[in-house]
Design brief:
The complex is a heterodimer. Chain A is mostly helical. In chain A, 62% of the residues are buried. In chain B, the strands form 4 sheets. Chain B has a 5-stranded mixed β-sheet. Classes of the chains: A mainly alpha, B alpha+beta. Chains A and B meet through helix 3, strand 3, helix 8, helix 10 and helix 11 of A and helix 2, helix 3, strand 7, helix 5 and strand 14 of B.
Chain lengths: 585, 332
Amino acid sequence: MSGHHDHSHGHGDHGHDLPFWRKYIFSVDHKVIGCQYTFTALLFLFFGFTLMMIMRWQLAYPGQPIPFIGKYLSDDIAADGVLVGDGYNAFGAMHGTIMVFLAIVPLGVGGFGNYILPLQIGAPDMAFPKLNMASYWVYFCGGVTMIASFFIKGGAAASGWTSYPPLSVFASSGQTMWLWGMVLLITSSLLGSVNFIVTTVQMRVKGLSFFRLPFFVWAQLVTSFLLLLAFPPLEAAGVLQLMDRLAGTSFFMPSGLVYATEPQNQLAGGGSPLLWQHLFWFLAHPEVYVLILPAMGIVSEIIATNTRKPLWGYKSLVYSAIFLGFMSFIVWAHHMFMTGMGTTLSTFFQATTMIISVPSVIILTCLILSLYGASIRFNVPMLFALAFLPMFAIGGLTGLPLGLTASDIHLHDTYYVIGHFHYVVAPGTIFAIFAGIYYWFPKVTGRKMSEFLGKLHFWPSFLFINAVFMPMFFQGMAGLLRRQYDQTEQLHGAVAHGLTKMSSYGAWLLAIAQLPFIINFFYSMFAGKKVGANPWESTTLEWAAPSPPPHGNFDKTPVVYCGPYEYSVPGKSKDYCPQHVAQEA
Amino acid sequence: MNLLLASTQYGSWTPPLYSDHGGSIDKLVDVIHVFMFVIFIPWAIFFGYCLLNFRARPGHKASYLPIKAKVSKYAEVAVAVFEAFLLLGMSMPVWAEYKNNPPASDQRLDIRVVSQQFQWNFHYAGPDGKFGPTNIKLVSASNPIGLVEDDAAAADDIVRVNECHLPVDKPIYMRLTSMDVIHSFDFPTMRVKQDAIPGMEIPIWFRVDKSATTDAIRPQMKMTVPMAKAEWYKIRHHVAAVDHKVKDEVVLAKGADLGVDLKKGNELLDQLRKKGLAELTLEPRNPLEIVCAQLCGNSHFKMKAQVMTHTEDEFKKWVAESSKKQKLETDF
């Protein structure tokens, strides 16, 4: 193992001379930007979770004052400590928005993608470092805009993360802030995606052909194309909705509206509320794969390293990811089966929805077959990566009854939907993100996180996250609808109230289970066990750079001699052959 | 698992079903879930086997070569074939039936459903079978759909707010729209769900089972709750199904409510516990509800209509009486 490195190197000749604010704040180094993304997004993740914990109080104990923090919330949100309907809806809309656009995507793409991708292809930085910096700061401004909207009159956007008009157009000015925030976030993603694509195509080191790329890089590449092609329609739609709100246009507003018994004096009318839904879901379905593909990439890296054997069906994984990306553009209207869709359109969209499950099944199959004949190391990153597999399987399987129109009649907009996509994104993607943090922490800091605290984080989290989401399938089956401020107001919600409480307790215990992680994260940063460049004895290029990698990344530009997962090659003395080490014939 | 299911106490899986098309929806839901377990359980067993058998330990080495697994290919093909079956054999025919064959116009009952924040307005044509025209300028709290009441066709029309009367065993044809924002018409016990969108009028149709009058359903949904587990939130929409007695004294009369709010409800439950009542026998105050499934504003959760299902004769009687009343009180 090449553990010790001299810090003088060829590329980063200006890396040490920059003032603090250029080095750590307005940095153009992909690693600093990756860390900025990760820190900011982890804070948003925590904030989004907090909103949900407050909502879960209202659901478990409707109409009762929120303990501890209720009295500190403004009257727009909680009157006399009791969450009000508008406050609940604002928290719900912002939970969704924050988790998707400010936490998970920035972690998976902005954080891991930025930090790891250039290292894995042997590049000294991204192709456009300044664009990269701009991408983070535009994201940051989008986040600030979203948070600021809580403090304006009328509170934050409260029309769901989907912001369906006409509700969103009639809504208070928090919605305008939401739209500005979204325009910034989308712009940030576009800047990032262009950068990722160019970097991957242009900056691979010698010998690193496309089919020698780690699967993580493939996942990021496909994700970038999704961001590049799917986000602009929503950016346009966001601007149109802004115009409906601010300029009196009626892109999404039909004629003959009566709001609170007042006929609306629109200049034109004639707009279509469904147009927004098409534009929104044309983004938001590929967005689902933007959430899941980086997670699959992370999990694949960790499984390959900790099974000590090559991934099963590397090419199947790659082709499946590409096919998944392509298909994700033609399934969007399965979110809209209840909008009055006839048989022709629904036939197409439920057929494509069934087809898109095939590549997902292949990816999952490849990963689980990789375990056969392995020598599995159960370290903390591996535990999280392994947990991803059954959780994602549950999330995927429960998508079936939602993707078929007939069963969707009963399950549409129920807690079944909530359970389904949270299984994909929470114990799925978020577990993969935790796996990635534990796995690459030594690369970023030069120190390892505590295994003990890690396991103390993993096992309770695994238990409680299932306690949160498993009851939702049964609630959905009973017909309990989502986005209900007081679920017991309806007969079928009242009878399912026991399960609602179980979910709530699960969520609060899940929060406590994150304490070991927070302690571990900061403790290990300063006092964790020091490690060398390649503590996991892994093969891909990021482990060829020192830990932490200096500005410019590599002491010597590596050359790649083999595929990404050459573990346990017969006849070798070590059970791994790094990509940058030439093998004797 | 049984414990979880039982705690919903509202059917053990999907809600009770009272429409003739709903059976095929439930069947599809059931088949998919059986299919999920058929996939997931062997998958999980294999997963567990790998974790145990291929754990790192002294003397154990990973093999470089991949397993030559034909099983996985067969499994993938089987999954794809079964999905095709679900799609072509079940979902598409059910959806086509749900969407493509509206009942003939002379055999059905037409109802206009005009939704608004946060109420369902039901507009019946009355005995003449003709809907009166509407005008949005006439909309007011007392005329929620803006019915042009001077018009001859409107004279016998019936408009009801959050109250829906339906005959059993007769095709019902509803035309859904909205005046303000998008709502979603959700009638879970009939397996009917359809968005109501401003600027669009979307038809739906279904038929209530012959035996499913409200009066017949209510006792079927009877449940007993031990006092120790009685929680107001869970039973707030229920009434006493029988006279509850402690030592020959009636402590809770048949039909009695369990308190309109949390405080009163809890007080009542405390009193009953003190008197030594062991369990409650309850039935829903109104077993059939239409609710809103699409977020429509701060009181979205409260948007619901009570449904009364009647025999054909009872329904005719209701129409006759209600349309007469409409004529007498023109300002409604």
